[in-house]
Design a protein that fits this description.
The protein is built from 5 helices and no strands. The protein has 122 residues and is mostly helical. It has one domain. 9% of the residues are buried. This is Transposase (putative) gypsy type domain-containing protein. InterPro entries: Transposase_28.
């Protein structure tokens, strides 16, 4: 069974977005928007968008989310608040280890496909 976040509706109004950007320290150039009525928490724009909840921002989650993590979330059809703290440790730990292991080789950053080759989701 595949989870669909379509039933989850945003409680944020478009008029409150600028206040959220300031309060939670969104970097310049980050575009935020309220999801459309039929748009859920998952399956957003091609891995370039992620759905955030106020609770995850209040708990300390901050942007910018590394590209490989956005890709993993998109492939697994997850929103950031659906990942457990241990899952975040694994994601960030792998990104850091990858950079350390490949810093002298000029390799690009870890990709979602490489990460998912190493870790299964079942």
């Amino acid at each position: 069974m595949k989870f669909s976040g379509v039933a989850l509706r945003s409680c944020i109004k478009a008029s409150n977005l600028e206040a959220c950007k300031g309060r939670y320290g969104f970097p310049e150039g980050v575009h935020i928007r309220v999801p459309a009525a039929r748009e859920g928490t998952t399956g957003l724009e091609n891995g370039e968008e992620i759905c955030l909840s106020l609770q995850i921002l209040e708990a300390g989650f901050r942007l910018r989310v590394p590209r490989f993590i956005r890709e993993v979330l998109h492939i697994l059809n997850l929103a950031p608040f659906q990942v457990s703290p241990n899952g975040w440790w694994v994601l960030m730990g792998m990104a850091i280890l990858w950079l350390e292991l490949h810093k002298d080789q000029g390799r690009p950053q870890l990709t979602a496909r490489e990460f998912l080759y190493l870790y299964t989701t079942y």
